[in-house]
Design goal:
The complex is a heterodimer of chains A (285) and B (86). With 285 residues, chain A is α+β, with helices and mostly antiparallel strands. Chain A contains seven helices and nine strands. The longest helix of chain A is centred in the last third of the chain and has 35 residues. Classes of the chains: A alpha+beta (285), B mainly alpha (86).
Amino acid sequence: MLDGQHDSRPAPTLAPSAAVDHDGHPSGRYVYCIAPGSEPAPLEEAGIDGAVVYPVAWRDLHALVHDGPAEPYQVADPALTAERILRHHQIVTSAWQRLGAILPMRFNTVIVEDEVRGVLAAWLEENYSSLRAKQAALAGKAEYGVQVFWETAVILRETFAANPEIRQLEADLASLPRGTAYLRRQQVELIAKREVDARALRDCQGLTDRLRRCVDLLRVEKPRQAGEGQQQLLNLACLVSRERETDLMQELAQIDHQAGYAVRLVGPMPPYSFCSGMTGRELPG
Amino acid sequence: MDLLDRVLERGLIVQADIIVTLAGVPLIGINLRAAVAGMETMTKYGLMTDWDTSIRAREQETSSLARTLPQLSAAAPEQSAERVAE
């Protein structure tokens, strides 16, 4: 990987090590993000655990890093881990706001440094074209998380009211003997379930198509658990140009306005979900 | 996928031979979600006294955090933080 030099360094382990080796060179670099610019203005904020955050540059890109041990943070303590995660996100967001398109790293990305040759600098050099292309593709864009929910009671009510078969089956329910009435109700529930499932599918497809027209890219996520009386219909990660944000907001407001629907929006945030596997050529026209 | 999930599981991928990872340790758990939610509430009300004013002033900008975190459910199913190749 490094010009054919044999790497005799042992594979990275989780053994505890000093923050710096005896020569004073960092043995590990915690990476926050990759940002445009070769000589960024110095950061005013401290990094995780008060660390000094500084740039490592290659041409017109730089990584924002802090020096530390060649091991990731342990995560046994939830409160401490939470603080570190928030600090990571704060640095990433701050860089995004000041510098434009950035490529955020996930929490706890630690590069094992080499005394002789900078591993991070070498990585930036080797991946420069790809990083530059990704960064250009994300310039001026933000990520939003969009979730659409059903209010289950409302949807069910609409389904019952709209379906003639159900209405007919329910019409004389009160006059039926108990056993028959029970079977009749089972029948009604089966039909209702079929209708609701079909509607869920139509809604998902329809809403995704609508939203795809308002955003640059979208990514369908696994549905998550919803609150009481709700069902999650759609969970999307969206990449939106800043100029098109109002279009997306308007579309979401319209969806949210419909009876039985609720929209939850998270963002704008740096484009965590659109960093990998993306080049400038992959964006839709 | 909330903000927490994104910061823990997404972002740029760096090849494994130059980074060191916590293999097999689940990062997202009920306690972590609760701690993140609690932390955010504290920052909102300026109770984190070791954060300087410039950081607190920027809390307005992290509107995504403010909107997301109070809704993290303590009952959400746990996910492991295994690095999935994308």
